[in-house]
Structure formats: C-alpha cells, structure tokens
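[job 4471] stage=fold_predict status=RUNNING
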Amino acid sequence: MTLIKSISGIRGTIGGNTGDNLTPVDAVKFASAYGTWLKNNSDKEKLTVVIGRDARISGPMIHNLVANTLIGLGINVIDLGLSTTPTVEVAVPLEKADGGIILTASHNPKQWNALKLLNEKGEFLSGENGAVILEIAEDEAFDFADVDSLGEITENDAYMDIHIDEVLNLPLVDVDAVKAAKFKVVVDGVNSSGGIIIPKLLEQMGVEVVRLYCEPNGHFPHNPEPLKEHLGDISKLVVEEKADFGIVVDPDVDRLAFISNDGEMFGEEYTLVACADYVLSQTPGNTVSNMSSSRALRDITQKHGGIYEASAVGEVNVVELMKKNNAIIGGEGNGGIIYPELHYGRDALVGVALFLTYLAGQNTTVAQLRASYPQYYMSKNKIELTPQIDVDAILEAMAAKYNNEQISVVDGVKVDFAEEWVHLRKSNTEPIIRIYTEAQTQVKADELAVRIINEIKEVAGI
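[job 4471] inference complete, writing structure tokens
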C-alpha cells in the first residue's frame, strides 16, 4: 500500500494506515491544506473551488470528504460530479473559480485515487506552490470556519456537455466535414467517465460509435494505462467491426491513444504528432513536448517551418515552455494533447476532434497516415540502485562521457545523437535511473538502451 506526496498533489492506495495510504484522514488533511493555501493567497471574502471525479469505486467517498472539508473551511464548492480532468480544467475559468480539484489517479489501477490540484486558471500548480501546500499539510496549519461562515455546495452536471461545445466551437474543428466522412469508430472508455464523454462527442460529430467498456462503474476491465499490451480487445474489435479506427482513453480522459484500422497501435507518441501535423498545416507556429517524447514532433514542426523545443518531464513544465515560446500545440508522448486555443491542459476531447477533422480531409486510412510519418521506435527501461550510490554523480559522469554530443541537463541528462537519443532521469522517491532511448528501428533503440545501462553500471560499480 502506498501514499505519494508530491508538488502536483497526493495519490495513494485506498485503505490501510493513516499516513501510509490514501485514507479518509489523509484526504481531509490535504484538502484542508489546499483550501488553506487558497485562503492565504486571496483577499476575497468567499472563495470557490470546482471539483469533479472519475468513475473509480472510491470516487464518491473521497469526493464527499473533499467537498465537505472545503465547506468546513468556508469555501464554496461547484460540484461537477462524474467528470474528467480536462472538463474540470475548462470549468474553473468559466466559473471564475479560485481553483479546482480532480479526484482521479489517472492511469493507475482501481485501488488508487488522488487529489489533483488546480489554480484559478484551471492549470496545475507550480512546484513552488505545491511545496507550500505540502508544508501546510505537514504542520496541520488549518483554520476552519465558524458555523455562520461555512461554504455551500452547488451541483452542476452540465459541464461534460459544455466541454464538448467548447471543443466543437474551435475554428480548426470542422463538424460538417467529419459528418460527411461517415466514420465508424470503436471506443474503449475503460469503464470510467471517458465512456460517457467520448461517445457523446463523436455522436455530435456524426460518427457511428461502437462502445467497448463504456459503463462508468469503476471496474477497469484491463490495466487502465493505454499501452499496447493492455488493448487486445479493442484491437480485435476494430478489425471485426471494419471500423475506421479505435479510440482509447485513460480513466480521467487526459491521455489519448488510437488503434489503426488494421488493429495495430497508432502509437501514443504519434497522437500528438498527427494532431500537430494538422494544426501546423492550418496555423503555422511552434511546438513543445517533453524530453522523453518522440523526435517525430520535431520533424513535423520543422517541416511546417516552426520551432520545436523540449521541456523537462511533467505537464507543468510543458505548459510553462509552451507559454514562453508561444507554442500553438504541445503535449507529452503519453498521448497528452495540449491545445492552448481552448486551455493549457492535456485534453483527449481536443485530440479526438482535431484528428477526426484532419482525417476527414485526407484520402487515406489511419494505418496509411501512420506510415507516412517519420518512423521512430522507443525503449523504456530503469536501473534500481542501492541508496548508497550517488545518482547525481552517475548522471554527471554520463554527461561528461558524451560531452562531444548535443547534451541537455534541464531534466536529468539527455544525449542527442545524429539518428537516436537517450534520456536519463532519476526518480524523486527511490534510487532509480530511468533510461529512455529512441532510434529508427526497435533493434537500435534496444541496443542503445543496453549499451547505456552497461555504461551506467560500470560507472556505479555494480
């Protein structure tokens, strides 16, 4: 059982001992810390927070605890009920709220849940703000409201529809073109809120929907992370139904993966590549992804005359660099599309609508579209180290070893070779080095990973 406290929020497994797992006491404690931080940074007499949850079994319990804790602090709550991460992000500024909380453990299995914390823009908190909240929680420096100053709950279950409307109103989303194409699409909603909102979006775009695991009961039928090894059922169903493609989302609908018409993975890395290809073809500009994302986005951006830059891993870091570079689209290689025209957050709905519009204008299948992009292959590995080993020293040694190559030390060490790259990052919670490599064939990516792992072990003396 696990409880992980980080600058982005708190997540853990349900049950067990306080402080070791995500118990009701821990949920109340960290909701109190977040609400206290909001109050400490505002002169307003009454604050408002938007909350929503995915369909996890523990969702209603954690949801009620968090909502009533905020009320106890004298904060008003706009309760979206069953929702998605991007829906809450959209709702915060539309409601002119002071913050937001999404109750979801994203792609983690059903025994997990989490509090994801937003600022008044509907964006994830900075590392600095997150650290302050952790300190407040540790000190239990809470000041609850008296009986005449308690907050109130307002329920609003319209925001999934509002979110869909916001997406469909985007200038680069062409609903008429998609309707004319008469697409047929299989949707795997992993029995969470994506099973509601993605089919709704598709049907409003005139798409025939075949539903798979779209009952939002929180019983995930497979590991909810949208990776190839978990998606055998939808891959088979896309071929059986002769569908144009398949759509897979994670439980909180901020990650998006496609299954090509031949039943093969389009690839999470290429979700962003395809959407960026369309957006850049219509509105040239710059792009950003994180350092562990595919080089294919750089290639597509340069093809359209834009500038690509890579940020440190983490959505907050991607957003910060996107704002700095005026990037018109960005995201992460895990299928996270960030399209600032709507909001600065990963949003599967935006990705679906942009991809459908792009596909409607192409005389091609999804498999052919995937084959048209630069072909890169990744290998993701890790080395477990003993606590006595100095991980920073190892990373410094590896950077020195390859100082004749293009090196970045913004987030660990990334070495860009002519035709491949390697990214080495240390874990913040355990002595682990993560090794991501990419090359033009899977064999080369795997060989580079083995070489780097052996070099790290030699440096570390293990």
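[job 4471] summary: Residues 442-460 form the longest helix (19 residues).
[job 4471] exit 0
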